[in-house]
Amino acid sequence: MRNTCIALATVWAALCGGTTLAAQQPQLGSIAFPTSASGEAQQRFVEGVLWLHSFEYESAAKAFRKAQELDPDFAMAYWGESMTRNHSLWQERDRDAAVAALERLGSTPAERRAKAPTEREKLFLDAVEALWAEGPKAERDTAYYLAMGDLLAAYPDDPEAQAFYALSILGLSQAVRVFPSYMRAAAIADELLRQNPDHPGAAHYLIHSVDDPIHAPLGLRAARAYSKIAPDAAHAQHMTTHIFVALGMWDDVVSQNTVAAELTGWWPGHYTSWLGYGLQQQGRFEEARAHLERARRNIGERPGVGRRAYLASMRAHYLVDTRRWSDAGVEWEIDLSDAGTVVRAMDAFALGYAALERGDADAAERHVSALGAMTTQAEGGWYGGNDTVPLILRNELQAMLYMQGGSTDEALDLMRETTAMEDALPMEYGPPDVVKPSHELLGEMLLALGRYDEAQQEFQRALALAPKRALSLAGLQQAAAAAGDEKTATRARGMLAEVWHAADPELMSGTR
Fold it and tell me: With the CA atoms of 101, 57, 182 and 472 taken in that order, what torsion angle do they form, in degrees rounded to the nearest 10?
């Protein structure tokens, strides 16, 4: 082993020797990842792993390729580059690019394995060979998980084996929240974070394991830590808000996604979408509108499907959460022809809802028909992947049409059926794909019909799934007050006042 060093991101020179690079290095946390390399190649490798732990894949690949240039036989640098092509929690993988990176090390798995000087490094390579062998994604994710288990069994005290094993467990679920396996990953990541409090992967993977309203309190310590561990990683700043949204901590949702957008750009995307949703929950509708317009201006001349899809989802949430049904944004033409059915359903629902509230039932009917067509289409595009969402949104809009037409029994029956559908979905995180939560909508219908006790129950259920969501709090306060339940009404009113502490003045004065 050649001058194995335990490299920390902030103290390169002290631990690895050679020219001091600390002033040039981004602040990404610290890890112990000894390899057979040394000097600057090892430093660049560690930088790549740090970026990798924060899912900053392009920056990670750049660092790994630099390590390869410095040491062309450095097997782990090729391992790292191949890992940047596996985005397991995003349901994305680029096998061709990953294999191409490995083949620059050697043309066959055996040749590549022979270039790894230590048994530990050979096991890391074995794991990615299992990941990138031919076969369906779920099969390969399982093979990778088993290989990482072999690595951890051989080196149980290796923090990087622990981190990547935890991530491999999360990857088994194929983006469906499976609580038992998520809790296994959480236990590993939590212990790793306790032993290595500056480890970005430990904080990151713990957050991913518990970012639902039931388990989110278990991730609050990690969320508070992660933004400080990796201040130069935009995804780290955003990732904390997976916990903050699940707990209804809207001030933190806004502040952290603002930092993330500043580090990247203000185009329509993941960070700006969550920021807009947070502003809307805070009742800062004017700022939310300006933010939406800024995202639209920054979409670019030839925006990819991702930016167009995010702009549509941002508009959908803005219309539904602010109830500004006549906003000029309803006239925006957003091309979603190559987007997935989920975001197209969100867009159609919001535009149909707005049309109905403006009194244009015919337009709403057309959107119901469009949503109905989407329920029979396989998910094939970008953004979201749950085929039940279009049906839920179609039912909600149809139920509202029933209500407007006086068919209240049909409306309530359809909505109760729809809430059961939404309850059967894996628990969401972040701005919901069901852009109008079904329990909230049913609560509003029951409130309008004077069925206050039933309305309270629906709003309570909505808040259990989305804590401190503003419209659910407002509905609960109104239903409880009308039912004579002053204790619940006072509590809901106080929580809403807390959420709306910086809201637009007309909201605080009770007008819209």
Answer: -150
What domains sit in the chain, N to C, each tagged with a CATH number?
1-174 (1.25.40), 437-512 (1.25.40.10)
Structure tokens at 480: 């409880």
Helices and strands, number each (H, E), in the chain: 26, 2
Higher pLDDT, 490 or 21: 490
How far is the C-alpha of 292 from the C-alpha of 311, rounded, in Å? 8
H or E element, residue 86: strand 86-87
Count of residues making up the chain: 512
What pLDDT is recorded for position 52? 98
With a pLDDT cut of 90, the percent of the chain lying above it is: 88
Q: pTM for the complete prediction? A: 0.91
Q: Give the mean pLDDT of 51-67.
A: 98
Tokens of 400: 């509202």
Q: Which residues contact 487 (CB under 8 A, 6 or more apart)?
A: 480
pLDDT of residue 242: 97
Q: Label the pairing between strands 86-87 and 92-93.
A: antiparallel
114 CB neighbour count, 10 Å cutoff: 13
The DSSP letter of residue 426 is P
